Amino acid sequence: MTAPTTLSILRALSAEHRQRLMRIPREVMFPQGTRLFEEGGRADRFWIIRTGTVALDLHVPGRRAAVIETLGHNELIGWSWLFAPHVWHLGAEATSPVRAYEFDATAVRTMCQDDLAFGLSVTQWVGDILAHRLHSTRTRLLDLYAPYGSGSVV
Questions:
Q1: Is residue 154's pLDDT more than 90?
Q2: Residue 105: helix, strand or coil by DSSP?
Q3: What is the CATH number of the domain that holds 95?
Q4: Range of the domain at 132
Q5: Where are the alpha helices (DSSP H) in 3-151?
Q6: Over 60: is that where the pLDDT of 135 sits?
């Protein structure tokens, strides 16, 4: 499932705030199969996908990681960088070759603290994505495990 386009940076931030944010990234490329981050790792950066796809996954003990959502063009990879303790809550893997803009989380958090209007916009954008991802995670886990873990008797 892909996030609705309303969560895209193009619609979430004003032109002024988007331009300000887009002054600082560096362009990066990831081959298919590259792990961008693992659950529990330090969330010190984030990405906006230019081309390609990235699968967000959740470690499930005793099973393969559950893919929660697949992200594509103009979508944000990572929200944990914004909220303490700045540790990834999911994992991410390139499912095709990916080109992305990479942002230094510390620099963006500093920009948010220095300009409260900018900070509010970024926080609202990332918060909306977080809410969407939590819903996607819940739905996906119910799809995968509800018949076995719901407690209902068939």
A1: no
A2: helix
A3: 2.60.120.10
A4: 5-145
A5: 9-12, 15-21, 105-114, 116-149
A6: yes
